[in-house]
Structure formats: structure tokens, C-alpha cells
Amino acid sequence: MAAPERLNVLLSQARNVLILVGNSETFVSSRKGRKYWRPFINQMKSEGHLYNRLPVQCEQHPQTNTILRTAEDFDRECPDRGCPAPYGMKLSCGVYECPSKCHQLADHSNMKCIKIAKRSCRFYIQEDEVKEHIIGLETVKAKFLSIKWKVDAAIRQNIDLSHDRYGSVLLRNPGSGKTTIARLYTKFLSSIGIIPSDTFIEMTGSRLTNNGISGCQKTIETLLKSSGGAIFIDKAYQLLSSSLSGSQVLDFLLAEVKNLIRKVVFILTGYQRPIEKFFAHNPGLPSRFPHKL
User: Domain ATPase AAA-type core: where (predicted)?
Assistant: First the structure.
């Protein structure tokens, strides 16, 4: 390094910065090399371009400059490959700013907005007020809220919901609004993105038994043409009360409940005691219909 050609090559090859690993005093004090290195080092010092650390500038915030010396400096001053300042750009929603510190644009494009909106659509407010005034459905509304809180928490934490089941059972007396509750439940699941549509098909256990597996399959295909939705089966225990075909239809439905998660939700209804016998038919029924309304 004492030869002048070495210094000339370094200067000619460097475009933006010249990094020297070692002690500059070694070059300046060298018996052979100080003739060339001392003027160079002194000029760098006099013009303020000689650092014992690494000067950096944020590309997103050019006014932010700092000097890094240790590995800890990188973690503190460049936490997300940018400066410690807020990123300051809008998220994909176009409303809220990115809450993270400065980072690369490629990372920002993959960030999702998880901000909970403080203002609600006035049409949804009116719909919620109507639901709140429905008398005698406090337990149902509490169930709706518990499902919504779980879904909201999963979205914020990036938890996969593709295997969660939302099949439900309604155990209510005649005239207690079972169909109304089922329709509200379908609209609710559609509004929070669990199913793609609030299309609602109403059936009975005896009708499904008479139609057989082929008729049941046609009903599901009709629903899927509307992107999905819910199938409401009133008096579901009738599937087991008449003939062998009802049991076969039930076994077919159990397979479809598993295969059509996030597309179709099945809602069963009936009286307490017959439904308990109905659930005893197959140990897989409680796991496929985990919610009671």
C-alpha cells in the first residue's frame, strides 16, 4: 500500500465512498507511504470527509442523516431498513397512514390496514338499531358479537380462519323466530366475510329425505351458483325418522359441511330432545355444528 499506484487505483475506482479498514495513522506514519497518504488524509480531514463511522442518509427522508459505528447503531437507527421516523405514507385503504417506522417501499406494499374504523355507515347503523330492538334475542346477539370479536382478533393477528366452522343449531319453540334468526345469522356471516353471499335456502328434513342425495346435491349446486350462502334445515331430525335414505342424505351432508367451509353454512333447527337423539347418530355432528343460537 506504500506505492502511489495503490492510492491512485483506490481513488479512481471509488464512485461514492471509499472505505478503509484499519488505522489511518498506520498509513500516515508509514516510512515509505506517508509521502502520498499524509496529504490525502489531511485533505479529507480538512474538508470534513473523514469519518471513523459510517454516514448514512434515509432515501425516504433525505433530511435524516446519522452516523453508524456499531451493530447496535444499525438496530437503533435503521430498525426496518429505514430511519426511525414514521413512514408517513397511506396504507392500501387510502385513509390511514402506515403506523410502522420508515421501511422500504416493497415492504410497504404488502402491509394491510388493520385500523378499526371509528365511523360506521349510516345504513348499517340503522340495520343494527333494528336488530337491537328485536325482543328476546339477547343470547343470539351475544353469540353474534362473540363470533365477530373472534374474527376481528384473528384478522388483526393474521390468523388463518379457513378451517373454522360456523355451522349452527337453533333449539327453539314454535313461533320463536327460528327462520328470522337464521336469516340474520346468514347476513351476519356474509357481512364479516365468512361466507361470500347471504343467499338463503330453506328446507326441511323430510323434504331432503324425499329428494334423496341427488336432490340434496342439486340444492347445493344452486346455492353455489350464487357464490354460496346458507342452507336452513328445519326439523333436521326428520332425516332419521323415516327411512334409510334420510340417513344416507345426512352422511352426504356431513361430508359437504366439511368440504364447503367458507362457501356454505348449514343451519339446523328443531326441538331439544329430538335434536339430542339426532346428534347421537354421528359423533362428528357436534364438531360440524359447533354454534348454538
Answer: 173-275
Contact 120, 98 (CB under 8 A): no
Distance from chain centroid for Cα 119:
21
Same-domain check for residues 148 and 259: yes
pLDDT band at 276; cut points 50, 70, 90:
confident
| Domain of residue 161, residue span | 127-292
Q: Are residues 174 and 190 in the same domain?
A: yes
C-alpha cell at 142: 351475544
How does DSSP classify residue 251? Answer: H
Q: Which of 14-18, 137-141, 262-266 is the most confident on average?
A: 262-266
Give the pLDDT confidence of 175-216 residue by residue, as tens digits: 777 888 899 889 989 988 899 999 999 999 889 988 889 999
Helix (H, G, I), strand (E, B) or coil at 267: strand
- Would you call 190 exposed, middle or buried from its count of C-beta atoms within 10 A (0-12, 13-18, 19+)? buried
H/E element holding 261? Answer: none
Q: Which amino acid is at 167?
A: G
Signed CA dihedral, 215, 217, 218, 223: sign only: positive
Neighbour tally for 160: CB within 10 Å: 7
